[in-house]
Amino acid sequence: MPDRFFAQVGVMAVVTYLIRAVPLVVFRGQLENRWLKDFLFYVPYAVLGAMTFPAVFSATGSPLSAACGVVAGVVLASMEKGLLTVAAAACTAVLIAERLMAA
Prior knowledge:
By secondary structure, the chain is mainly α. It has helices at residues 2-26, 34-58, 63-78, 83-102. Helix 3 (63-78) packs antiparallel against helix 4 (83-102). The longest helix is centred in the first third of the chain and has 25 residues, at 2-26.
């Protein structure tokens, strides 16, 4: 069993290394294609959003309270408030929504 574990970890390490090393080898010079540069600029934000957004709705007791937190976060983020303010307000909105639904 431990041999299989180390083999799996080794395969994951090689795959992770290749994913990071291949672009460095293939794209040695400066990228000139504007579309590709714009695409690569937004990839981290898209991946982070795709990983985070579904978790937001499963982190609370109900999807309704999660939606309240998302709305509070989006409103404050659109007003260009800081990350700590947005996160605290979203958590507070979820807490209030959970308390109101429990009553």
